[in-house]
Structure formats: C-alpha cells, structure tokens
Amino acid sequence: MQKWNENEVEEVKKLNEIKYDFVTNVKPAYQVQKGISRSVIEEMSREKKEPDWMRNIRLKALEIFLSKPVPTWGPDLSELNFDEITYYIKPEDRKANNWEDVPKEIKDTFDKLGVPEMEKKYLAGSVAQLQSEGVYSRLKKQWEDKGVIFMDMDSALQKYPDIVREHFGKVVPPSDNKFAALNTAAWSGGSFLYIPRGVSLDLPVQAYFRMNGALEGQFERTMIIAEPGASVHYIEGCTAPTYSQYSLHAAIVEVYVKEGSKVRYTSVQNWSDNIINGPTKRAWVEKNGRMEWVQGSLGSKITMTYPSSILRGEYASTSNLNVALGIGPVWKDNGAKVIHAAPNTSSKVVAKSISGKGGMSVYRGQLRINPGAYNSKASVQCDALILDDISKSNTYPHNEILEESASFSHEASVGKISEEQVDYLMSRGIREEDARSLIVLGFLDDVLKEIPLEYSIEFNKLVKLEMNKYGAVG
After folding, report:
1. Which residues of the chain register pLDDT less than 50?
2. CA R_g for the chain
3. CA dihedral of 419, 425, 426, 428, whole degrees rounded to 10
4. Could you tell me whether strands 149-152 and 191-195 are parallel, antiparallel, or unpaired per DSSP bridges?
5. Given 18, 37, 78, 385, which residue has the most CB atoms within 10 angstroms?
C-alpha cells in the first residue's frame, strides 16, 4: 500500500506545531496551590471579588464533588488525580477590549491561532481566554446598541449579577455529575451571551479557549440567553499544547432558548493528546424555539461529551450533529441527549465517528419522549467508520418512547473504506492517500456542511492532520 509522502507529512506536522502546539511563555499574575479544597475555593472567590451567594454556591458544589465517585461506566479515568491539578491560573491582571492592549506574549498566542483575523473578517464579537480567565472581549457597536451583551463570564458576574444569579446552575445543577460539580465549585472564565427580544445577529460570535500547561485545569462556564424571537450563532474553539502529563478540561454550557428563538452552538475542539475532556452542555428549549448543536471533536486523550436539549415547549425542536475522530491511543465517548417534554416537538441526532490506529469511538446517547408529548418526532443516526483491524467502535443508545402517538427511528451502521471506491478514484488520477482522505471527508459530509465555510475549510485541514498523525489512511 502506498505510503504518505514524507515531505507532506512533515509539512502538516510543522503547520500543527506552529499554529496549535506551542506554549505561551507568560508568568501568571496569580495562581492557587495544587489540589482542591475549601480553602482553595475560598481563595479563588476572594481573588475574584465575588458576591457571597456565588461563594456559597461554590462551597456547596465542592461538597457534592467530593461525595461523588469518578465515573467508571466509560473510559478509564484512573489516571486522574484531583490533588495534583492546579485549578486557577490567572494570566493577567487586566482584561482588554482591543487586541493592541493585550500583552504581547498573549496577543502573539492568539495571532498564531488566527483569532484576531477571524474577528475582523467573520464575527460580530469575540471572547478569548488563556488558562483560567478571559483576557479579551469585544462586541461590535451595532450589536451593543441593540442591547446584546457578550463578555467573559467573570465580568458578567460583576456587571450583571442579577441575570447571572437568575440563570446560574438551573440548566446544569452541580448534582448532575461529578465533573459538573467540579466546574460549579472551581469555574473560572467562560463567556456570557445575552440577546434581547427580537434581535437576530447576522454574524456569529466566537469564544476561544486556550490551555497552556500540564496538570492544569480549565473550567470555563458559558451561559447563553436568547430572549423570545432572538437568534444567534455561537462558535467555540479550543486548543492546547502537548505535554507528557495530562490536563483536565471540564466546562459547563447552559443555554436558554426562549419562545420562538434560535441558537446554534458550533464547537471545534482540537485538543492535544494529553487532555482529558469532560464538559457538560445542555439547553432548555421553550415553545417554538430551536436549538442546534454542531460538534467536531479532534485530538484529546479522552473525551466524554453529550450535548443535550430538553424540549419544554410545544413545537420546540433540536438537532445534534456530531463528528468524533478516535485516531491513535485515544477514547472518544461522544453522543447526544434529548428529552421531549411537550407535544409536537421534534429532534434529529446524526453522529459520525472514525476509529483508526487502535482508537476507540463510542456513541452514547439518550432519547426520551415523555407521556403526553403528543405527535412528537425523533430520529437517531449513528454511523461509524473503522480504518483497520485493531480499532473499535461501540454504540450504546438508550431510547425511551413513552408516548403512543410519537414517531421514532434509529439507524446505525459500521463500515470500512471500500477498496472499490479507492480504485475508482485512483482510476481518475487521484493518489491513493488522497482518495482515502476524500472518502473519509465524504463520510463526514453530513456534519461538515453545517459548519460555516470559513471554519469548515480549517476543519477539513484538521481532519487530514489527525489522519496523517498516525498514518491512519496511508
């Protein structure tokens, strides 16, 4: 079988190292000691000058975290030692609203990642976070004038405490799971997006989260509130440099899709291979509201993520489109959860996974149509592509249809790259490795076409990079 061209492989590795796999040499303005305890949480809260009610939420969540066991139903998490992680690292004492005011070392980091350039070309606003706190946020004036709020979560707590308090922890309570309890206790940074009634942003907003060290925790908190009739597209980007020791990422995303509003949440995560990634993402969707999740999961050592929608109002709807690449010694535990809790609601889940070079890809999902959710419709499609004989793909659907008038379909497929397809493309003058890459990208097309063009081009490159890294299609 023809091998990848060595010069091409080296070029793509060099591109990855330049753009993603580098360390920002910045001395933290402040950081807590390793390990999690009541004193560490109180110290964080004091440093952030938080109100008493937030500190009390943190301390109650810490008790829940300490009482819950580490999950054992999925990937092996025995490597996790919560006492050796640093939970709060503040990179800077000030936050900027102009890229020129960001300290040079930090600005150079986001310049390499292309974030300022993306903001100029495609975005209504952006938030950038390094380690535990936001270092930059900006929203174009035309949207500020319409009442849109977009900033880092810590700043929102100071400026809009009543809105934050009303919504914080309602969609994802700390009792939900161990990582949710950990985030609620140790959260820092993240983004806050509020769209007033009837306002539709015609450009997306973006939050970019960058980790920077080993044995480091990043626990950002994102809150999106779309008032009735509003609409927005929120894009999340995540990267980290590679270390021999692991780091932990455990975010929470809470989305409020109010009556007749629409939110699309696109996440492109390109974590390094030492990251353990366990976010909790969930939306409440009210009458005639629509929630769309689009997720591309690349890199990481372990990922456990299941974006969820609770359809609470009549004619609420959701879609969940998910791509997961388990290439190399990694475990991708991805999926979706949907609860139909009102009549005439609808949902669609499309999950695509690729396993290669010993990787494990898992679809783990829950679909429930409650009694009384009359005439609701739901479909789940799980497709897996396995690239060799040593990789695995498992599917664990949990479907509960408790309403007789509802309709539900579930499809699942597992396959390998067809040699007939490869031969056909090669007969048209396409090299074997390029033919295999085209087949892989074609397999992912259902999801990739939902990512905005300027991001999908980059995502295609990342997919090829991930495939090249272990010679998975060569």
Report:
1. 1-23
2. 22
3. 150
4. antiparallel
5. 385
In angstroms, the CA 128 to CA 184 distance is 21
CA distances from 15 to 21, 115, 198, 470 (A): 9, 16, 42, 16
- Assess contact for 394 and 353: CB atoms under 8 A: no
CA–CA distance, 373 with 401 (Å, rounded to integer)? 10
- Would you state the structure tokens that stand for residue 463, as one six-digit string? 């997919």
**Which among 341, 362, 242 has a CA at the least distance from the CA of 297?**
362
Query: Could you give the count of Cα atoms lying within 13 Å of 291 in the half-sphere of its Cβ?
Result: 35
Query: How many C-beta atoms lie closer than 10 Å to residue 405's C-beta?
Result: 12
What are 59-85's pLDDT values in tens digits? 999 999 999 999 999 999 999 999 999
Predicted pLDDT of residue 387 = 86
- Site of tokens 């879609």: 319
**Three-state DSSP state, 332:** strand
With tokens 């940074």, the residue in question is 189
Residue matched to tokens 């309403």: 403
DSSP secondary-structure letter at 61? Answer: H
Domain range list for the chain: 28-305
pLDDT of residue 299: 78
Ordered DSSP codes for 373-403: -TT-EEEEEEEEEE-SSS-EEEEEEEEEE--
Q: From its phi and psi, is residue 169 left (phi > 0), alpha (psi between -120 and 50) or beta?
A: left
Buried/exposed 137-162: b ≥16 CB within 10 Å, e otherwise: bbbbeebeeeebbbbbbbbbbeeeee
Cβ within 8 Å of residue 209, ≥6 positions away: 129, 189, 218, 220, 236, 237, 238, 251
Predicted structure pTM score? 0.90
Quick one: pLDDT at residue 23? 47
pLDDT at 133: 82
Write down how long the chain is: 474
φ/ψ of residue 63, rounded to 5: -60, -40
